[in-house]
């Protein structure tokens, strides 16, 4: 399983629009991607509701994980999205 950590750059954290953009990008990978805040339980990153329930604020670090063909590249793209959007 591939993992990445990223610091959320959005000044509103993963709320509404940033969460929707991230979840859509996670879904487009075609992989089972998870997202976790700190040492909390991971949630399905393709579900905007699950992402919103984490309550990720600006500047917080999250952990992404995925398994399967192309997981490394997919996580690189998703981490970059979180760190720049």
Automatic annotation (TrEMBL):
Major place of residence: cytoplasm
InterPro entries named among the record's database cross-references: HPr, HPr-like, HPr-like_sf, PTS_HPr_His_P_site
Signal sequence interval, chain numbering: none
Gene Ontology biological process terms from the UniProt entry: phosphoenolpyruvate-dependent sugar phosphotransferase system
Gene3D superfamilies: HPr-like
All copies of domain HPr, residue ranges: 1-85
Subcellular location: Cytoplasm
Domain of life: Bacteria
Record keywords, A-Z: Cytoplasm, Phosphotransferase system
Pfam families: PTS-HPr
NCBIfam families: PTS_HPr_family
PANTHER family: PHOSPHOCARRIER PROTEIN HPR (PTHR33705), PHOSPHOCARRIER PROTEIN NPR (PTHR33705:SF2)
Stated role: General (non sugar-specific) component of the phosphoenolpyruvate-dependent sugar phosphotransferase system (sugar PTS). This major carbohydrate active-transport system catalyzes the phosphorylation of incoming sugar substrates concomitantly with their translocation across the cell membrane. The phosphoryl group from phosphoenolpyruvate (PEP) is transferred to the phosphoryl carrier protein HPr by enzyme I. Phospho-HPr then transfers it to the PTS EIIA domain.
Protein's name according to its UniProt entry: Phosphocarrier protein HPr
UniProt source species: Pseudonocardia sediminis
Lineage: Bacteria, Bacillati, Actinomycetota, Actinomycetes, Pseudonocardiales
């Amino acid at each position: 399983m591939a993992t990445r950590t990223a610091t959320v750059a959005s000044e509103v954290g993963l709320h509404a629009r940033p969460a929707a953009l991230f979840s859509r990008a996670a879904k487009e990978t075609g992989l089972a991607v998870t997202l976790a805040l700190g040492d909390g339980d991971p949630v399905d990153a393709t579900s905007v509701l699950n992402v919103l329930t984490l309550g990720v604020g600006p500047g917080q670090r999250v952990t992404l994980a995925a398994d399967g063909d192309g997981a490394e590249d997919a996580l690189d793209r998703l981490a970059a999205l979180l760190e720049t959007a």
